[in-house]
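Hey L., structure's done. Input below.
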Amino acid sequence: MSILELFCDVDDFWQRFVGEWERTLLSSGVKPRYHEREMAASEIMTILIHFHQSCYRTFKHYYTHYVQVALRQEFPRLLSYTRLVEIMPDYLVPLTAYLHTKMGRCTGISFIDSTVLAVCKNPRISSHRVFADLAQRGKTSTGWFYGFKLHLVVNDQGELLAFCLTPGNVDDRRPVPQLAKKLYGKLIGDKGYLSQPLFEQLFCDHGVQLITRRRKNMKNALMPLLDKFCLRRRAVIESINDQLKNISQIEHSRHRSPTNFLVNLIGGLIAYCWQPHKPSMSHEIRLDLAA
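Output:
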């Protein structure tokens, strides 16, 4: 996908969104923070998203070495890097709204998983200040970390269905009822989601069947063959988490603002939604499940 296609889609969204957003703010007694700048809002949003589609690992190098050098013709009214970073927080709400327009639809087969977003290296935890009141220490199978957990739900085609961000010490099972509100059919997770009360809550409240593997110290239970196929395809969401971190660069330890951290995260999720070839279950398996 070219940057021109991305800009056209973002600009179409902005034209529909900005008027409604300003009316909502005024009706609630809040003065709109957005005002006309030398650089158009849709141009800024395009740059914030396109960074996660590029090969650059840091936004500063992307903006100063690529945008300000190679994209002068596409963006003739570029702001300085310092000024752009300063106004980034103003675009968190528009980017979040735009992300929801790019999310997929439930197909009856959904995968859920969480991934760690560490905000600093472990030796720096005691001196870290940017996320001092927000991030928490957590532990995974690979060890301790300090930061957040990103919880994702995707369908069998790799499309994003729901997401939320929690501190690192939150149990993976806690946000599941909220994430499953618009789902139906089967929800496949790892052993971290194994819980009889959670299974009953999802089935009674939303009609969703939670499928997980059983722990080694638990008795074996009969499982339909199709459920086993679904469990073996959990690599779909694990591959998505890997791409978000290593291609979209949603995790790094150089954030200096919690709001800009969220802007970076939302931009990475949008970039993934635009990805033409997403990790997905094979076509043959989907046909068997639909039969």
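The first strand starts at residue 109 and ends at 118. The chain has two domains: 3-102, 109-260+278-290.

-- N.
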